[in-house]
Design brief:
Number of domains of chain A: 2
Distance between the termini of chain A: 14 Å
Number of strands of chain A: 12
Low-confidence stretches of chain A: none
Largest interface: A-B, 44 and 44 residues
Shape of chain A: globular
Strand order of the largest sheet of chain A: 3-2-1-4-7
Structural class of chain A: alpha/beta
Oligomer: homodimer
CATH class of the largest domain in chain A: Alpha Beta
Largest sheet of chain A: 5 strands, mixed
Radius of gyration of chain A: 20 Å
Strand content of chain A: 15-25%
């Protein structure tokens, strides 16, 4: 039977899965991305895992028909990972071509947020939607736009860099070299930066002051905010305000039906979603008010692999 | 032979034209929009003009197959003009339905900026492009986005309201009721507001001070800037900076190949385009730098009708 592989590449882990035509994950393996500074060695190891999965697979005569990859800074048009700041590979890596030549099957690559959007559309909360956005709130802020039922790649494959719209003119220094990008405020690392700044600039007591530096995370901030710690609540509110305002501007351009939040910071759930929605509504042009839902993603880690596999199935 | 009508509705004039399948305008009439506070009377008059055109038409047995309309606040999905601030008709006007019932042909409506984008794609500077934006710099700032070769309507038909992204937080009061919208700075009326503010707040001599109030326009400002008047040059530069920054943010979302400027303020040509491009580049995320052209629209007034007619031909 025909099978596709979905590969979800992250700066820390890479998840590889075999997926059948109905979206069932038949077999899954995890790879430690950081251990492979040489992308050729990474691909060799991924191949070994896929072969291993094919042997293990419960189906008769599994035939690998295609590979789909979601990766940070992945470019759909070129099949390359280009200048990804949090990956072990520097510069431009022709990852789709490396897989294609080694595995001898069609390989399609896109960025991780676009793969998440495909996953959300096929197997998550966006089933049946033609216009929506998935926002990944991890170390950075990624976004995958679906318009007219298709992923928006733009002219060069790089559309959907919502994390780099300017939220605060001349604001925080971003990994991209510019200042004030949305992701320096609204992301798992952005909320930690806000908390550190606010703790430094106030004398207000907070149990967060006594946490070791490496335990200050979007998770601990959300926990303390939900327990009523005033400074943590203010930090969540500020994050929601910055994100909500940027979403109101984004809606003016693409007018989506729904916005899905995914990733580390999104796990704060309604604690973040409710004020973000309020700030977005407060800032929306009247024609867009009370129309757009902000929802938690329904993707699990399996679904990121499903999103990548969906890309492969689309091209087989 | 089969013919479609293209109708370009503006707050002041409405242009009606008959267009054949190859994009030739066979006949054209102009209607004074402001004289028709009742949309039903407007449609009756437009019908008389179309019938008149069909009689005048040089082709044998012209058969009207469809009508396409471009109008401010026109909604593609509903066929309505909805709450257009500069039109004689208030609230929601079911204009496509009015034409359909009276003329008995399929009628399709979209907003004027989307019609301009269709015209630019079929008959203007965007021929062959799959991802671009047309920005109309008139009384307001309108925008029509083409992605993957299709007009971006969004979930509710209102995508492409770039004029209402916030350029200056808590800035100028906008016709939409909010503050700081891009169109209050970057439009034919926005640049006049800037000039008035700057003349009021400085004592710098300028020949623009002696102009009667109703002669201060984007045209006279551009003329004086090109003659070297320092305050006019600064005002153009500020307008370009505000627009260039907003374009840099927009590019992050849709990644277009080119941005076309159309309408009154765009007639300033390279005087506006060169600094706008420089400010956009200065603010772009590195992956987008030196890729995106800002170009003057190649649409004439005829082409606005052609854009509306293109919409009709698409649906016949």
């Amino acid at each position: 039977m025909d099978i596709c592989a979905g590969i979800d590449i992250g700066g820390t882990n890479t998840v590889i899965g075999l997926v059948d035509e109905r979206g069932e994950v038949l077999c899954q393996r995890i790879l430690d991305t950081k251990k492979f500074p040489d992308p050729e060695v990474f691909v060799a190891q991924a191949k070994a895992m896929i072969d291993d999965c094919l042997n293990d697979c419960s189906r008769e005569n599994p035939a690998l028909k295609g590979i789909g990859i979601g990766a940070p800074n992945g470019n759909y048009y070129t099949g390359c990972i280009e200048f990804a700041p949090n990956m072990p590979w520097k510069g431009v890596v022709q990852l789709a071509e490396l897989f294609r030549s080694r595995m001898n099957v069609k390989t399609t690559l896109t960025n991780d947020a676009n793969a998440a959007a495909l996953g959300e559309m096929l197997f998550g909360g966006a089933r049946g939607m033609q216009n929506f956005v998935v926002i990944t709130l991890g170390t950075g802020l990624g976004s995958g736009f679906v318009v007219n039922g298709e992923v928006l790649y733009g002219h060069d494959g790089f559309a959907g860099e919502l994390g780099h719209v300017i939220a605060v003119r001349d604001g925080r220094l971003c990994g991209c070299g510019r200042r004030g990008c949305l992701e320096t405020y609204a992301s798992a690392s952005g909320i930690v930066r806000t908390m550190r700044e606010w703790l430094d600039n106030s004398a207000q007591p907070s149990p967060l002051r006594s946490l070791p530096d490496d335990e200050l995370s979007s998770k601990t901030i959300a926990e303390h905010a939900s327990k009523g710690d005033p400074i943590a609540m203010e930090v969540v509110d500020y994050t929601a305000k910055t994100l909500g305002r940027a979403l109101a501007d984004m809606v003016c351009i693409t007018s989506p039906e729904a916005i899905f939040l995914y990733g580390g910071l999104a796990q704060a759930g309604s604690l973040l979603i409710v004020p973000t929605k309020n700030y977005m509504e407060e800032n929306l042009l009247n024609i867009f008010r009370n129309k757009i839902e902000i929802l938690p993603s329904q993707l699990t880690s399996t679904a990121a692999v499903l999103g990548a596999a969906a890309l492969a199935w689309k091209h087989v």
